[in-house]
TrEMBL record:
InterPro entries with a match to the protein in the record: CIDE-N_dom (IPR003508), DFF40 (IPR039729), DFF40_C (IPR015311), His-Me_finger_sf (IPR044925)
Keywords: Apoptosis
GO terms of biological process kind: apoptotic DNA fragmentation
Keyword tRNA processing assigned: no
GO cellular component terms given for this protein: cytoplasm; nucleus
The organism's place on the tree of life at top rank: Eukaryota
Organism: Manduca sexta (Tobacco hawkmoth)
GO MF annotation terms: DNA endonuclease activity; hydrolase activity
Protein name in UniProt: CIDE-N domain-containing protein
Pfam family, one: DFF40
Domain CIDE-N positions: 1-80
Matching PANTHER family: CASPASE-ACTIVATED DNASE
Amino acid sequence: MKKGYKVTDVQREKKIGVAAENLKELIEKSRKKLEFNVSYAECRLFVAEDGTLVDDDEYLSTLPPQTLFILLKKSENMITDFDYYYNMIRSTKKEYLETGAAAKQFLSINMKEKFKVFQRYIASADDSHTILSERSEDPGWFEGLERSEKTKEQSMSKRVKERMRGYYYKTKSALQSSDIYVYSKNVRGKKLIDQFLSELRKLLETNKYNETYFNRKAEQSSRLCDEKGEFRCGGPWNARNCTYEGEHIINPYRSREERIIFQTWNLDHKVELSRSIVPKILEALTSLYNGDIHCVSCDKYTKSGGIETDRYFLQIFTRENLKLVHIVCHYKGKHDAQSAVFTVCKDCFGGHTLEY
């Protein structure tokens, strides 16, 4: 049975619709419609969203109708949608996008002394603009931001969502470059990982990317600042509090300068994403792939079961494992805290457990 797909070239200059029953038909029709002057053998097809190579009919059959593909000639390199649109924005908003990186580089040298200067500036800053919210009331605060950002709260919520998307794409990239994804037989490894990522993203979308964390008008229990927009450092990952009492405080709602400095504050994973969480997710997926599952709920071993996706969601995206810290308190060495393999048997499914 034929399904309808969308196909474009790597430059996104022309998008076409193609109905096809198999991979060969999809590539043949696409190369003709896109006017590629190369043979079928010289073409490759990728999923636009994440850059996955589609190289057999079985994997193609798992993808939904209207999936967008990129058709490439052998001489071309794949660029995912994320990278393509990021580069497009970067070309027009380069100064804005590089502000945070430049600030971090500047602060990495003689950091403590520079922050003493910043703290003196912050302490003497004009508080009169802090309570203002609308772009029309405090236009200077919005300098360098998108015109669609009408209030400070909207802008700060957007900054949280950007960080959350970053964690998601970092997780996705690591999982999809793993051996179980790249070299799995019968595409089972790909299906397991794609299914897990789909569920993880649904949880993220359901929770609106935790956009309330930086929003001073959100409910007190769901934000990290006070009602004025003031944030306090939580201290190093393994400490109860920040030892720089009264110093590591910032209100990005007060001025454009503090908003920019706030980009250097980190949402630090106490249990590290790359060193611990992702490896444990891969370990859990591998146990499903091999049919060797240990249930964390009832302690039984079984051949089939699922993953408690919500446990990993909490560790990657929520305050359960995230701590807002000043750059001085951001410890970049290895953390001792560890994640775990959250697999369960069929009898213990519940909540946001994903069955495989």
